[in-house]
What we know:
- The complex is a heterodimer of chains A (237) and B (412).
- In chain A, 29% of the residues lie in helices and 32% in strands.
- By secondary structure, chain A is of the alpha/beta class.
- In chain B, strand 15 (353-356), helix 12 and strand 16 form a beta-alpha-beta unit.
- Chain A binds chain B through residues 12-14, 16-22, 25-26, 29, 44-46, 62-65, 68, 129-131, 148, 150, 191-193, 196, 223-224, 226-227, 230, and chain B through 136, 139-141, 144-147, 194, 197-198, 203-205, 335-342, 361-362, 364-366, 368-370.
Amino acid sequence: MTSDLRLVWVYPDLLSTYGDRGNLLVLERRARLRDIGVEPVFVNSDQPVPRDGDIYLIGGGEDLPQVLAARRLRTDGGLAGAAERGAVVFAVCAGYQLLGHEFGGADGEPTAGLGILDIRSGRGDQRAVGEIVANVDPVLGVPALTGFENHQGVTRLGPDAIPLAEVSVGTGNGDGTEGAHAGRVVGTYLHGPALVRNPGLADLLLGWVAGPLRPPPAESDELALTLRRERLAAVAP
Amino acid sequence: MNKLPLRARLATSVGGAANRVSRLAGRGDGSVIGGVIGLRLEPGLLALLAQDRQVVLVTGTNGKTTTTRLVTAALAPLGEQIASNAFGANMEAGMASALGQAPDATIAVLECDEQYIPYVLVVTHARVLVLLNLSRDQMDRAAEIWLLARHWREAIAGAPDCHIVANADDPLIAWAACDAPNVTWVAAGQRWHDDSWCCPRCGSHLRRTGDEWKCHECSFSRPPVRWALSGEDVIDPAGCVRPLGLALPGRANRSNAVVALAVAEVFGVDVVNALRGLRDVTSVAGRYTTVERRGVDIRLLLAKNPAGWLEALDVLRPPPEPVMLAVNAQVPDGRDTSWLWDVDYRGLRGRQVFVGGERRTDLAVRLQADDVTFEIVTGVEEAVDWVGHGTLEVIGNYTAFQQIRTALGRAA
């Protein structure tokens, strides 16, 4: 790496409902453990989204902010441009939905998304609230996802998107699958700080940009792995 | 009280008996069970009990219990009996219970859960509604806050006789109250900005300069204030600056006190007299109490959400004073610990920090990311052992705080 890795947090003023900063902090920390320099970039909704970032993070939000964010991002074009260029995009919950062709707006009406992921979302009958566990697409080589979901969305994948995982506990997309990936774009219904309990997924995103990563010093990973074990044990059938 | 219909009288007396039994049995503060039974016998009990009383409702994400206590203290100079759900039982049963227990009170100061406001505002015909702040809180069960603000707005539009006392520094609160005919705006401050970067009216990014905030697209802006908190002082409507001199610590409580003074003004209580009442309040439902344990003075602070943690961290005595943080994720706390990542813990660097509670591993991982060093403990006793002497500050979220209070023998 010749220069620092640019981590772009898209619209924290609109899309950061619950601990979304965690994903930025986890990526920063895990990069630092490999002596990779990181430059965090915060882009508010009144600023243009830079196209030259390495990893883009986009978080969760309430219905109205989600609609506003989608409208602004469509006009801005920066995020779609970056994705097209092959930048890594990691999107959570409302952010995941708005990467698709459409999602349910403030009153459930279909609202245009960015079309970066081949998915369509709408509003389901019931809110999915609780712990979620899902086995990740083996192609990605990442251990099972553990997290918390809190959404009323239902998402269907088109032919150009691949389910990120198969749900074993919880709801996810609503059809037994959870999230989606295509190229270097990853979306998930695990909300907020999704990478905290899933350091493997964090390393996957970092590795896409920085190349093969050496394992972090064991003692620095101990707590995160303990937390993973605890949360997985807490929901074990 | 004698004007109550027979069924309401029966509901009140049966409920009151249940409250006493609950307290005697050591099962709780006895502040809810009576109301639950009473409401089962007479579903319209709250409306009947509120009749012919001047009701003040206090709501917001943070500071409800303390502000309810402070408003009660500020109204004391009126010399009237005041009914109040002083222990934070803020749903219908808790309010009914408080009113039932004080049949002769002409004034009621009631803490009300945010989601109940539209209903309670109608049935109690409140004279004053206090709106403190709105921020993210236990999102696995609470309504989203923009939606909540919209519900408040609609409820306020249907209650034109109610006088609103509202925090002008919180844009969501300002939006909820701005069209009401009678509003006392208070500059009560807003430490937590992360839920109000955008205009509640149109969604554009808000600009902030000093204390002012303004939307540059729809020009919605901070309303002109009548009362203001300025550092340690209050500025009254005449522009007179007075030291608050509270016994309660922290900026959040000074802000709650200024709101209480604004309520007192609506009731015609002189600011000097109202202040005297506020200064006598030393602890609120166990919060801010100091308890001695094997030579260590423990001070208990409650923080239930990111904005509350920010305020609690502000209250801490300066480093290297040791501090214990305790986090649970039971239903009353919210089952989701994601909020930990919304709190900035870097200010704890350089202190001795203990991490406890049922979700201590979540908290430990969070502190590690902020480069805060810590010891994991199984309970407050273990932290006391480590500290040995001097003082220990403890911040817990809801059930963690209650567990620590119990462990310390409810001395608090």
